[in-house]
Write a structure and sequence with these properties.
Strand order of the largest sheet: 3-2-5-6
Shape: elongated
Number of helices: 2
Number of domains: 2
CATH class of the largest domain: Mainly Beta
Low-confidence stretches: 23-35
CATH superfamily of the largest domain: Carboxypeptidase-like, regulatory domain
Mean pLDDT: 83
CATH topology of the largest domain: Immunoglobulin-like
Largest sheet: 4 strands, antiparallel
Structural class: alpha+beta
Order of helices and strands: HEEEEEEEH
């Protein structure tokens, strides 16, 4: 009889521990859902002076002086960032570099989604070597 009581208590203890573990997992899932709702998707397109799409342009998003993200345009000239709204500051801005075009800086505040970013050959044109250095260097942005 004593063994049955001990077995029953152990069983109740295990079941209660298991149900507590499941409720903590549900709470974690709900908190990750609320966190993902704070993400802002920033999409853009890079074109040249003739409105031709620029593929493989390097796009760096400076969120502040110590925080950045990187993206590269696809063959369709498009790029995308998924950014936590809390990381965006007043000084947040884009830096877009592509060989044969002038470096382009654009404040995130002044950026209108849906309006293509137009690169120009006027000004200090970025040589291919500098473009490749920039292209490789921005890969480390956003890694902490």
């Amino acid at each position: 009889m004593r063994k049955i009581v001990v077995f029953g208590l152990c069983l109740v203890f295990l079941v209660s521990c298991k149900s507590k573990e499941n409720s903590e997992t549900d709470t974690d899932t709900n908190s990750s859902v609320s966190t993902s709702e704070e993400l802002r998707v920033i999409r853009g397109e890079v074109v040249d002076e003739r409105r031709k799409k620029v593929a493989y342009a390097a796009v760096k998003l400076y969120l502040d002086e110590n925080d950045c993200m990187s993206a590269y345009t696809g063959e369709d000239g498009a790029f995308e960032f998924k950014v936590d709204e809390l990381r965006i500051k007043d000084q947040s801005h884009f830096e877009i570099v592509y060989k044969g075009y002038a470096e382009y800086l654009l404040s995130l505040r002044n950026y209108k989604e849906g309006t293509p970013i137009k690169l120009s050959k006027k000004g200090k044109v970025v040589p291919a070597a500098e473009y490749h250095v920039f292209y490789e260097s921005i890969k480390s942005c956003g890694r902490k």
